[in-house]
Amino acid sequence: MNSIAFSPDGGILASASSDSTVRLWDVTLGTTTRVLTGHEKEVWSVAFSPTGRAVASGGEDGSTRLWDPKSSANALRLQINWRYIHSVAFSADGATLAAAGYDGAVQVWEAVSGRLLRTVVPHGSGMLVIKALACSPVDNTVAVGLYGQNAAQLWDMNTGQFVRDLAKSDGNVNALAFSPDGSLVAGAKSVTGQYYYLTDGLQVWDAVNGQELFASSGTPTGIAFSPDGHILASSQSDGTVDLWMPHW
């Protein structure tokens, strides 16, 4: 699993998979309820809209897709460019969808029509990879993880203006998630050698002042808060999912 996301009611967990599929899971039973197919290559990111009526996914085929989780219908396909799409995220009201990947920019789309609204280029990204995005559930803030810069930043998705830096990470930020009240940002990080991962871990920041509140070791590939904020889930490289009880 490359990425995971809870539905707004907490009953369904969506996962982005290396086999080109998006899978929906019953959280209580732990079973697969639906398999969404259409991506031509590995799927890197998945996100539920705030209403739960749509699932967005982005992958190695350079496209972002919007799905109806109840019918498996592929309603809208956004061909952003030829580069990989590593992360997708809905705005708090579900009206816009942010997507980013190998070109170092965040593209903001109108979710219903698929119209490109604006492009945001974070500080220091250049042509580097953006592997992580997360939209605040309470305002227009989007968190951006800069792979290769060991950094994460907050931006206003409506205006394209810079908000603040988050405390420097000691690794590449591969995944991000806001808590339901918008007060916390969690990140999955990795430090790589020439051919392998040296250290991995989980990091949590205060979204208001950007300070680090918590850090742990592990091999997280994706992270998500439950809708009530009582659980932080982190998918692992071995195919398992760890559950944390935030107390920071």
Unreliable residue stretches = 193-199
The multimeric state of the shown protein is single chain
What is the class in the CATH system? Answer: Mainly Beta
Number of strands: 23
Radius of gyration (Å) = 16 Å
How large is the share of residues in beta strands? over 45%
CATH architecture: 7 Propeller
Under CATH, the homologous superfamily reads YVTN repeat-like/Quinoprotein amine dehydrogenase
Mean pLDDT: 83
Shape, principal axes of CA atoms: globular
Considering DSSP H and I runs of 4 or more, what fraction of the residues is helical?
Answer: under 10%
Q: DSSP helix count?
A: 0
Number of domains: 1
- How do the SSEs run, as a string of H and E? EEEEEEEEEEEEEEEEEEEEEEE
The CA-CA distance between the termini, in Å, is 27 Å
- Strand adjacency order, main sheet: 1-2-3-4
Characterise the protein shown here.
- With 248 residues, this protein is an all-beta fold.
- It has a single domain, classed as Methylamine Dehydrogenase, Chain H (7 Propeller), CATH 2.130.10.10.
- 0% of the residues lie in helices and 54% in strands.
- It is built from no helices and 23 strands.
- A four-stranded antiparallel β-sheet has the order 1-2-3-4, with no helix packed on it. Strands 5-6-7-8 form a four-stranded antiparallel β-sheet, with no helix packed on it. Strands 9-10-11-12 form a four-stranded antiparallel β-sheet, with no helix packed on it.
- Strand 14 and strand 15 form a beta hairpin.
- The relative contact order is 0.12.
